[in-house]
Specification:
The protein is α/β, with parallel strands linked by helices and 549 residues long. The strands form three sheets. The chain has a six-stranded mixed sheet, sandwiched between helices. A five-stranded parallel sheet has the order 6-5-7-8-9, with helices on both faces. A hairpin with a 3-residue loop joins strand 1 and strand 2. The structure holds 6-O-phosphono-beta-D-fructofuranose. The site of 6-O-phosphono-beta-D-fructofuranose has 14 residues, from loops. 6-O-phosphono-beta-D-fructofuranose binds next to loops.
């Protein structure tokens, strides 16, 4: 356990006083003074990924102080501790070993005296056989047809990873395969997919770590009934598989454990796309590509465990996030992939970051006295330039951005990609540099505006600048790069959790609402007159029922 005084520590106090001296410093001046600034604040992972973090409100001193804080919080020890399987998820007394899933050199990883690599490799072998058999028509449906519709039924970590990664790697899908995802309990989610597919050609993958999640089980039951109505009960064995840690519940649901792909409690839901939870992806892109994704993540893991903090990409991004969150009072950030195939990356990262670090109690059981996880939002560029970028450029809130851009597109049509690239580079420059009122006035003058018009408009047309961004330049969105990118964000979130002294691997905040929903459900379904909620909830229950009469 760390000592309790995170925000009273020497390194923290140093950053507070540094902030006072530094807060008015303009990035454009820093760039003007130091032609080497970009080179100083750029790191690379092989020829896969580059982080340019020079357009942040930092100096070498800032980074030095931030790294002192990281050292004071014993980040290096904590990294080792996670990778060797210590029970760092202290509230659930679990190891955190999603990294073992991409441990491509197979060094033993011991949990409870057992090398988990043995179990992991056995499941990967089963995934390889099954995904090949489905892809090449050896494993057929009940009526002998090839299974070409792959429907993943899961929610949260059992959905967002597969959704994001299958979309990101769409160019690698086997021809003729279609992937669908059903997550929401809203019947529309099921109806919309079932309307499009033929039961004889459909494989349902029920993905749930616990196999108790009401949304997933309800959706799975609906799909099961739809299949049985069409093809009869014996068809279930050929059209349903499960991905879970819970064999008993899988059996109870009526799926043969032979059709189950296992993972383990040391893999958190939002960290599970590397496990059997990735089966839909493995079928779509093939196990070779799935393993390339693991290799990319492994490369990032090696970088993370072996690189000094000052050059360590996840650590740098984490500490810059801490700088904004805890010293500049900026509790939000945006991730903007400039790539259509990465359009679900922000949604995926939202769960990763906000479910991991949205905590108020530290590992000692004390309420924290400083900000923890920020709000994350985002969307694909250039679309979002035409929605929330107004606020990012001229709003009163500072929103640090991560721009994620592949240098090479999978669809080099005409000059689309150069236009896209020009846009993302321009956004970073515009946010950093801004436009002074003087510059705005000169432009207005050149456009022939009168003095009154210039005086009135120049403030509206000016940009404060000094607004930060990271640029993550990828060579191309391929399986390897995607693996490295996702692992980077996982580690960034982990490092921030260390700094904030919280358990990034539980998610107790999702429980209360789930429990209350179970109380309300019978009240909606039956005639209950004596409602015992607050007056708002009571009235809403009555109004819902009145509408549904
Ligand atoms: O929303 C809470 C949560 O437990 C997530 O952490 C998890 O990814 C999701 O529900 C789904 O859980 P399961 O895979 O057990 O169905």
């Amino acid at each position: 356990m760390f000592d309790r005084s995170v925000s009273k520590s020497k390194a923290w106090k140093k950053l507070e006083s540094h902030y006072k001296a530094f807060r008015k410093v303009e990035m454009r001046d820093l760039f003007a003074k130091d032609p080497e600034r970009a080179a100083k604040f750029t790191e690379k992972l092989g020829d896969t990924l580059v982080l340019d973090y020079s357009k942040n409100r930092i100096s070498e001193k800032t980074m030095g102080y931030l790294m002192n804080l990281a050292r004071e919080r014993r980040v290096e020890d904590k990294i080792k501790s996670m990778f060797r399987g210590d029970r760092i998820n202290i509230t659930e007394n679990r190891a955190v070993l999603h990294t073992a899933l991409r441990n491509r050199d197979n060094t033993p990883v011991m949990v409870n005296g057992r090398d988990v690599m043995v179990d992991i490799n056995a499941v990967f072998a089963k995934m390889r056989k099954f995904s090949d058999d489905v892809r090449y028509g050896k494993f057929k449906g009940h009526t002998g047809k090839k299974l070409v519709n792959i429907v993943n039924i899961g929610i949260g970590g059992s959905d967002l990873g597969p959704v994001m990664a299958t979309e990101a790697l769409k160019k690698y899908w086997l021809k003729g395969i279609n992937c669908y995802f059903i997550s929401n309990i809203d019947g529309t989610a099921c109806a919309e997919v079932l309307d499009k597919i033929n039961p004889e050609e459909t494989l349902f993958i029920v993905a749930s770590k616990t196999f108790t999640t009401i949304e997933t089980l309800t959706n799975a039951r609906t799909c099961r009934k739809w299949l049985v109505d069409a093809l009869g009960e014996p068809a279930v064995a050929k059209h349903f598989v499960a991905l879970s840690t819970n064999t008993e519940e899988v059996k109870k649901f009526g799926i043969n454990p032979d059709n189950m792909f296992e993972f383990w409690d040391f893999v958190g839901g939002r960290y599970s796309m590397w496990s059997a939870i990735g089966l839909s992806l493995a079928i779509a892109v093939g196990m070779d590509n799935f393993e390339k994704m693991l290799e990319g993540a492994f490369a990032m893991d090696k970088h993370f465990t072996e690189t000094p903090l000052e050059h360590n990409i996840p650590v740098i991004m984490a500490m810059i996030g801490v700088w904004y969150n805890n010293f500049m009072g900026c509790h939000r950030y945006a991730v903007i992939p400039y790539d259509q195939y990465l359009k679900y990356l922000p949604a995926y990262l939202q769960q990763l970051d906000m479910e991991s670090n949205g905590k108020s109690v530290d590992v000692n059981g004390e309420f924290v006295k400083y900000a923890t996880g920020p709000v994350l939002f985002g969307g694909a560029g250039t679309d979002v330039q035409h929605s929330f970028f107004q606020l990012i450029h001229q709003g009163t809130e500072m929103v640090p951005c991560d721009f994620v851009i592949p240098a090479i597109s999978h669809n080099e049509i005409g000059d689309h990609h150069e236009i896209l690239l020009a846009n993302v580079l321009a956004q970073g420059e515009a946010l950093m540099r801004g436009k002074t009122q003087k510059e705005a006035a000169e432009e207005l003058k050149a456009a022939g505006k009168s003095k009154e018009e210039i005086d009135f408009l120049k403030k509206f047309k000016s940009f404060s600048g000094n607004r930060p961004s990271n640029t993550l330049l990828l060579k191309k969105v391929d399986p390897y790069t995607l693996g490295a990118l996702v692992a980077l964000y996982e580690h960034k979130v982990f490092v921030q959790g260390i700094i904030w002294n919280i358990d990034s691997y539980d998610q107790m905040g999702v429980e209360l609402g789930k429990k209350l929903a179970l109380n309300i459900l019978p009240e909606l379904q039956n005639n209950v007159h004596d409602l015992k909620h607050d007056s708002s909830t009571n009235a809403l229950i009555k109004m819902v029922k009145a509408f549904r009469k």
